[in-house]
Specification:
475 residues; alpha/beta
Length: 475
């Protein structure tokens, strides 16, 4: 069976960079260097996409600003996972009408997952005439070409790509990293799971993996550049390698990266339980640089709801995997995603979710009330439970998790944790960082420690955050 995932030809990427230079020449005619405002919504994959867009903008001669009122180019990189995220985008785009009135020359653009939905693109076309450029996730590599057309034609440009473009890999695109300590590396794109509530397979396309050699090259360059916390990204990283000519498991990819010399930490997300293996758990346990933190979304603790969600595992399988992981990695930090109020869910079925949370004792949870997504199977299901009732369930789940988190944080008091110091704290003389288990720690220390690892003795726990005192700068 043919498994090759096409990589965008190098000459096509080179052509896009030529377009960057054409735009740079246009920008050079301005009295002052132009600035761009890029606002990214949603997941870490969107953040990584935003860094590629910024890489192109940098080559075009743009600087960056945090204030859209100062920008010559405004771009919203959108998320379609939940209705709330979409509502925020439409609200913020609506507010740009006055910005465009005050600054007629500003170019306003929208990209990302929302723009891969035809009904959204049509709404933008019809109701937001001051938006000049709209493009989807599949054509990020053609952003310079699309922006040049916008600038030179005077016409609005809309591009969502075609079926062939949701099955390719983008290599060689410029990247403007937003930080110097933490970095993202995309190892695969797309999703084949089609969970009944999820729009991602429709807006991100089918699964396709980068070669391990390409991932290793990017990862090693980040380690050499001094990045300390590197997160591997994919809609389902456990499916990594299935589209390669010579399939490589995600566990094998982790082992290859872990052998790269340096002082750093490897994280990854998101991991699907149906594809999580004992091999993956063993690799984490045996690794030198791999974080003892596993984000493993379970979504519901009830088997009927899991079947309706099309998750391809049941409660017992999930708990068996968790038990194995805890046995092999005693200090493992577990986090997860949970949906409350899936269509047709009863209160008794919801309580199965609460009981699973209490049994596993997660470090933290990302909890959401079900949000219907147009075009998904779940959006067509009967949903009789009123929003107020779902909200009560949601608060009950949060209360249970807060109790667990408080207990877990309190158990850390007196231990010494290896903390990556990420930034200066909100209070004078304080630093803030994260443990290997991704828990925030605040402690006093010199600002020079930012960007390095430090040993910190935990002295107190408050809600979700630990406080401590410096034991030694380096582990």
């Amino acid at each position: 069976m043919e498994r090759t995932t096409p990589v965008i030809p190098a000459q096509d990427v080179a052509k896009q960079r030529e377009y960057c230079q054409e735009i740079r020449a246009i920008n050079a005619a301005h009295a002052a260097p132009p600035t761009a405002f890029v606002d990214t919504y949603g997941c870490q994959q969107n953040v990584a996409d935003g860094e590629k867009i910024k890489g192109f903008l940098e080559e075009m001669g743009f600087g960056f600003t945090e204030d859209p009122e100062e920008a010559d180019f405004i771009l919203f990189n959108t998320c379609a996972v939940r209705e709330h995220a979409e509502d925020r985008v439409f609200g913020n785009v609506g507010a740009l009408k006055n910005t465009k009135r005050r600054h007629p020359s500003v170019i306003i653009a929208l990209c990302g997952c929302m723009m891969e939905q035809e009904h959204v693109a049509e709404r933008i076309r019809r109701s937001y005439p001051y938006v000049s450029l709209v493009f989807g996730t599949h054509v990020i590599h053609r952003f310079p070409e699309l922006l040049l057309e916008t600038l030179t034609s005077g016409k609005r440009v809309f591009s969502r790509g075609d079926e062939s473009e949701d099955r390719v890999i983008h290599e060689g695109l410029p990247i403007h990293r937003d930080g110097s300590v933490k970095a993202w590396v995309t190892v695969m794109y797309g999703c084949n799971n089609f969970c009944s509530y999820c729009i991602v397979p429709y807006v991100r396309g089918r699964e396709r993996s980068r070669t391990p050699e390409a991932v290793e090259e990017e990862f090693a360059a980040l380690v050499r550049a001094g990045y300390k916390d590197i997160t591997l990204l994919g809609q389902n990283v456990n499916s990594y390698g299935k589209t390669l000519d010579n399939p490589v498991s995600f566990a094998e990819l982790l082992r290859r990266l872990d052998r790269i010399p340096g002082d750093y930490r490897i994280r990854f997300m998101t991991s699907h339980p149906k594809d999580a293996t004992h091999e993956l758990i063993d690799t984490i346990a045996q690794g030198t640089h791999i974080s003892h933190h596993l984000h493993l979304p379970f979504q519901s603790g009830n088997d009927r709801i899991l079947r309706e969600m099309n998750r391809h595992y049941d409660r017992a399988k999930y708990l068996d995997l968790i038990r194995y992981a805890k046995e092999k990695i005693p200090d493992l930090s577990l986090t997860s995603d949970v949906i409350v109020g899936f269509p047709g869910e009863t209160y008794e079925e919801f309580l199965d979710t609460v009981s699973l949370v209490r049994e596993v004792e997660f470090t933290s949870l990302f909890t959401f009330i079900y949000s219907p997504r147009r075009g998904t199977k779940a959006a067509q299901m009967d949903d009789p439970v009123p929003a107020q009732e779902k909200s009560r369930w949601f608060q009950e789940l949060c209360a249970a998790q807060e109790e667990i988190a408080a207990k877990r944080c309190q158990a850390a008091v007196g231990t010494v944790q290896r903390v990556l110091v990420e930034e200066e704290g909100k209070q004078e003389g304080m630093l803030s960082g994260r443990t290997d288990g991704n828990v925030i720690v605040d402690f006093p220390g010199p600002r020079e420690l930012a960007g390095s690892f430090a040993n910190v003795k935990i002295t107190a726990a408050r809600n979700w955050i630990l406080t401590g005192e410096l034991v030694s700068p380096q582990s």
